Amino acid sequence: LLLTAGITQAQPFPSRPITLVAAGAAGGPTDTITRILADALGRALPQPVVVESIGGSLVGPQRAAQARPDGYTLLVNNIGFAASATLYRKLPYDVLESFAPLGLVSDAAMTFVARPGFPAADLGGYIAALREGGDRLNLASAGLGSASHLCGVLLQQAAGAKATTVVFRGTGPAIAELMAGRLDLLCDQATNTVPYIRDNRVTAYAVTSTARLAELPQVPTTAEAGSPALVMTTWHAMYAPAGTPEEVQATLSAALRAAMKDEALRRRFSELATEPATEERASIAFHRRFLAEEVARWRPIIQAAGAFAD
Ligand code: MLT
User: Which residues of the chain have pLDDT under 50?
Assistant: First the structure.
């Protein structure tokens, strides 16, 4: 009799491993953040959390939007997700309607980097080289609506010139090409670039934060380097598919807040100049409001730039 009662009762959540879809290719910042988060979530929850990294701006979110809304398939995505709501005329999902925001994960500055030996001494020289070189220079982008694409738009506006954009499935593959000297310029999250800058495998010209990063004390801020308009912070956040039961969302969001206090996560984030979300930012209410604000903030910028994709 007891057994039968057990079978008809709903399983407590989570009763099997959770998949966290990272919207970025392996080896890039979204993949890195998602792996560190998955480990910490696995310690906060009674089940392991496995990562599935999917490159290309739309594929990962689409996979999560179409997943069964049971809390077992989640998404981690960055600032580009908010911009994509305006950038694309047609999306296979609705940024604000197809997902249940669970909370923010992190914030990171962007860094302007170039291949080793790039002929510029400082950020002024980097921008001048783009102005003079134009489309003879290659600039990496992880696809329309990625963080690197948005930062590249800011850079090209500052230079008043357009480079040849090379699209990668994420900035993990892009930075490999940069180190190999086959790519000239990249604006990417500190999360991805800090280890390579420290090893002198790429050259850094500036960070887009208002203060220098403790992990890169030698790299000036864009304001110090004479371009105060080049300010950008990239955030990551975690989502469930819309329609996920509220108590499951609450369990996952609480686990996210617990993960933000995890010592191993905080140490790894700090090594990568990446800020863990505060208790407030890692909440459902904050993330819902923030996402709507970010979609509204990017809309006029993208409309003014006339940058749309089908
Ligand atoms: C990645 O993980 O590849 C990046 O987050 C892509 C980007 O948005 O630039």
Answer: 1
Give the residue from 92, 160, 98 showing the smallest Cα distance to 132. 160
CB of 171 closer than 6 angstroms to any ligand 1 atom: yes
The tokens describing 282, both together, are 């890692």
Residue 12 CA to ligand 1 centre (angstroms)? 34
At 125 the pLDDT is 98
152 lines ligand 1 (CB under 6 A): no
Q: How far is the CA of 132 from the centre of ligand 1 (A)?
A: 27
- Provide ipTM, 2 decimals: 0.97
Please confirm whether the linkage preceding 220 is cis (ω < 30° from 0). Answer: no
Q: What number of residues does the chain have?
A: 310
Is 193 close to ligand 1, i.e. is its CB under 6 Å away? no
Radius of gyration of the chain (CA): 20
Compute the distance between CA of residue 29 and CA of residue 41 in angstroms, rounded to an integer.
18
What is residue 214's predicted lDDT score, i.e. its pLDDT? 97
Q: Are 257 and 104 in contact (CB under 8 A)?
A: no
Give pTM, 2 decimals: 0.94
